[in-house]
């Protein structure tokens, strides 16, 4: 008799078991980061996400998207709407990144779809700049609030009594001199002396001086356009009256740039005490 073939399940190759889910400490260690570097990276992601969301908010309010592409550019109309869509895509990508890092344990340190999300935002931003160059439908959309509305800039108004003196001489000139001087000396300290901690101290000083100058400029523009705190600047008033939405959008951009510079200065100062020796040695070698 012919030998009957045995019926049953075919022998399949054993499946590879995925590794154990990574906790926050293991996730940071896999990326080669110390706990302090991991914290700074998380705060950086949160700051960038907040910047994108607030930029979209100001664009919705005034109908102007203040961007810096080699030079300050004000996008209006259709280019502003396309950049607003880019802000939405970037915000979605950043939220997905933060959820992956703060959510349940996961198996892979990198999201394979993150590049597509961020790339989509950059493509929309490039389209917005291209439409602005072609001057496509710029004067039609004017935002959701009045061009001269002040309430979106309430942080500037609250800080006016403290930050307005920073724009007066000699404080303004000293801030710029300290910022550039500390920056040059910090690079020399790292490149030729190999002093990473001195580099961080001077970099924090430079960033803080830049932040103080930027906040002073934002406050003097806000006060000068509205005649507040005894500031009377005809040139600034003329600019604000000619294009109030554009003027207010850039006041916000200056203010938020100062916020980011203060955060960067605080991170550099904290790194003097919390960065591990391995990271400091890596900074010396890269210099």
Description:
The chain is built from 11 helices and 2 strands, in the order ααββααααααααα. It has 287 residues and is mainly alpha-helical. It has a two-stranded antiparallel ribbon with strand order 1-2. Helix 8 crosses helix 9. The termini are far apart.
Task: Please give the number of β-strands.
Answer: 2
Tell me the strand percentage band: under 5%
**Sheet having the most strands:** 2 strands, antiparallel
Mean pLDDT: 84
| Quaternary class | single chain
Give unreliable regions as ranges. Answer: 15-27
In short:
The chain is mainly alpha-helical and 287 residues long.
Features:
globular; 2 strands; 287 residues; 67% helix; two-stranded antiparallel sheet; mainly alpha
Spell out the blueprint of helices and strands.
Elements: H1 24-30, H2 35-62, E1 64-68, E2 72-76, H3 78-102, H4 114-133, H5 154-158, H6 160-163, H7 171-191, H8 196-226, H9 234-242, H10 244-274, H11 277-286
Antiparallel strand pairs: 1-2
């Amino acid at each position: 008799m012919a030998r009957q073939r045995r019926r049953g399940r075919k022998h399949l190759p054993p499946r590879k078991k995925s590794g154990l889910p990574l906790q926050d400490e293991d996730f940071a260690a896999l990326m080669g980061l110390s706990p302090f570097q991991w914290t700074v990276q998380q705060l950086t992601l949160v700051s960038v996400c907040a910047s994108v969301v607030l930029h979209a908010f100001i664009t919705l309010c005034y109908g102007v998207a203040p961007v810096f592409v080699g030079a300050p550019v004000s996008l209006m109309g259709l280019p502003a709407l396309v950049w607003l869509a880019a802000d939405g895509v970037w915000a979605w990508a950043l939220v997905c990144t933060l959820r992956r890092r703060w959510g349940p344990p996961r198996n892979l340190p990198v999201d394979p779809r993150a590049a597509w999300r961020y790339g989509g935002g950059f493509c929309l931003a490039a389209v917005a700049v291209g439409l602005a160059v072609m001057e496509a439908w710029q004067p039609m959309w004017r935002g959701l609030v009045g061009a001269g509305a002040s309430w979106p800039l309430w942080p500037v108004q609250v800080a006016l009594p403290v930050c307005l003196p920073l724009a007066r001489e000699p404080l303004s000139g000293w801030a710029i001199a300290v910022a550039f001087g500390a920056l040059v000396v910090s690079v020399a300290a790292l490149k030729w002396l190999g002093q990473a901690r001195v580099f961080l101290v001077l970099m924090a000083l430079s960033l803080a001086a830049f932040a103080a100058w930027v906040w002073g400029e934002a406050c003097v523009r806000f006060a000068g356009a509205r005649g507040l705190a005894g500031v009377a600047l005809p040139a600034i008033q003329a600019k604000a009256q000619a294009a109030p939405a554009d003027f207010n959008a850039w006041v916000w951009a200056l203010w938020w740039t100062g916020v980011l510079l203060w955060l960067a200065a605080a991170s550099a100062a904290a790194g003097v005490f919390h960065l591990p020796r391995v990271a400091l040695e890596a900074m010396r070698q890269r210099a």
